[in-house]
Each structure stands twice: as C-alpha cells, then as structure tokens.
Amino acid sequence: MFSxxxxxxxxxxxxxxxxxxxxxxxxxxxxxxxxxxxxxEIDLIGKNSVDISNFRSLANLEIPLGSSIIHLAGYPDSKSxxxxxxxxxxxxxxxxxxxxxxxxxxxxxxxIFASSExxxxxxxxxxxxxxxxxxxLDSIPDLYARTKYLGEKLLLETMADxxxxxxxxxxxxxxxxxxxxxxxxxxxxxxxxxxxxxGNAESGRSFIHVKDLATALVSSLSSSAEGVxxxxxxxxxxxxxxxxxxxxxxxxxxxRLEQSGLSPDVRGCNIEQARLKLGWxxxxxxxxxxxxxxxxxxxxx
Length: 301
Fold this sequence. Notes:
By secondary structure, the chain is of the alpha/beta class. The chain has helices at 23-34, 55-59, 78-83, 85-105, 143-156, 182-191, 210-221, 239-250, 272-278, 286-300, and strands at residues 3-5, 14-18, 38-42, 62-64, 68-71, 110-116, 126-129, 163-169, 171-173, 196-198, 204-205, 207-209, 227-231, 237-238, 257-259, 266-269. The protein has a six-stranded parallel β-sheet, with helices on both faces. Strands 7-16-11-14 form a four-stranded mixed β-sheet. A two-stranded parallel sheet has the order 1-4.
C-alpha cells in the first residue's frame, strides 16, 4: 500500500515528477519550484533512487493526497528501446501501469504522460499532424513509438477519477553536454568546424526548446485540458535551415554539408489545440535557440 498524507498546500499544489533528473525533468522541476509547487521527485539517479517498474519501490513513497503527476521517466528514444527491448517494455509500459495504480491510491488530481511525435512515424510525412490522425498500432514500425502509443491508450482508457493528458512532444533540444537531437548535433559540429553529415537536408521536424516544453507542461497542470495534445515547435524546421542559420550566426560558411542520398523525412505537428487549451505558445525561435547553443558549446569545449 502506498504511503499517503494530507497536504496543506491545497489540491494539486504538489506534483510528482518522474524522470526528474533528466533533461526535460530538470527543466520542469526548476519551473515548478519557481511557481511555488511542492515536488516529489522520482528518478533512478540519486541517493533516493526509485524504479518505476518496481511496484514496491513506488509503494514506499510518501505522497500528499490530491497530488498531480508528470510522468517523464522511461526509455527515451528508438535506439535505447532497440538495444534493450525487454527493459523498454517493462519500464515504458509496466512502469506506467504502476504509476497509474499509485495515482488511484493517492487520489491524484491529474496525470500527464510524456508521449512523442514518433507516434506519427507510420504515416506519410507531413508538416501538420494533428491529434486526430488515424493512428493504428500496426502502422507504427518502431518499438519506442509503439510503447508511447500503447502508453497513451493505457492512460486514456483507464477508468480513473483523475484527469488524464497525453502530450506528444516534438523533438526536444537545448543546452546539454552531449548533443542528442539532430539540431544540437548540427550546431555542435559547426561550432567545432566539423563536416555535417545528414541523410537529406530537406528532412525536418517540429523542434521545441526544452524551456518552452517545460512551460507547457507546468501550464497544463492548471488547465482543463484532457486527452491528447501536441507540444512542439510552432513550425517545421529542416536540417538545411538549421545548418544555414548556424553558419550565418557564426559568420563562417566554410564547413561542408554532406548528404547520403536518403529521401526527405518530414514529420511536423500542428499545435493549435495546445495554444487554445493551455494559452501557450513556444517563445524560443530557431535563431535564438541556436545562438544559445553556440554560446553554450563555446563555453564548454
């Protein structure tokens, strides 16, 4: 049985954040603190390590009744899921099931689940996928995307008394030591004057800065939004645009852009529902985000 206690903070003023030490999780925790929320952090990292796939590990937590949950933990990408598919299923789906049981026990106010625009990967490429796209599990060729889509179904079809929201993240970028996204890798290579190699420069995604994403997630706590929301950048950005923008800011056009000849891979998200339901819009545009990355990589190299 989970340990619960009454909270004097008022309902939903305490937030449980899973994956709190991660890239997105750290940004969310920092913003929650600024907004005056009490926080229960759940992560494998740190002296108070908690494994969401271990039901007993979660059951030892003391969480105020009526808390909200922002669930970010899990295998974060296609590569990690392919490398350890049993673990990916156990954590991304089993861990979610454990957290839903916890949410029921603590009489949670809201459960926000980190899904991904990867759920659109089985559809023909477009720049404006909406939340109402006709997705089927059979159409999704990637294990990571499948765990996210199944996670959405598990969350939204659970007979729960709490509000549920699945957020399909665009490709997240920002300042971190090891570049993860294509945007970060391109900027890092140009800062270090290394040849940029891509499959096709016209490939594009709805990149979103981590601070914009954190703002959207925190805003969703006090909103009435339920169901599915795309949380992504305001438009499609191609790899060529990233390359050209970075070169222009650096004032250096000598670095080569090589393409391997693959077909363009385009996947963008329409975020009008997020604008309407959250009163939110991304604030960090491409040029500003690239400039921040350039300054960060220059300082840390």
